[in-house]
Design goal:
This protein is of the alpha+beta class. It has one helix and three strands, in the order βββα. It is globular. The model has no long low-confidence stretch (mean pLDDT about 80).
């Protein structure tokens, strides 16, 4: 567990551990593209799940940080991260 570098092109992630002094972005070992540094709460989808990877890529491009999101109606309850592009207003 720990921070991760993620390549959205190859749909790969690398665990960086919890040594906060050595956490930095790096290049993907497979394609050479600069990987995105993600917080420890991020759980990458399976490599084959292209639909979920597209959701993650979109959320990150729009500034979503993968930090805790609280439900205002239920005290100390986290809202699950979106897994689809479907809007649920229920």
């Amino acid at each position: 567990m720990g921070h991760k570098n993620v390549c959205f092109d190859c749909r790969k992630s690398q665990n960086l551990g919890s040594d906060f002094d050595n956490i930095r972005e790096s290049k993907c070992p497979e394609c050479g593209v600069k990987m995105k540094l993600m917080p420890h709460r991020f759980r990458p989808p399976k490599k084959q799940d292209e639909r979920k990877w597209n959701v993650v890529k979109y959320l990150v491009s729009e500034g979503f940080e993968y930090q805790h999101i609280y439900d205002d109606e239920i005290i100390n309850t986290y809202v699950p991260y979106p897994e689809t592009m479907k809007c649920s207003l229920a």
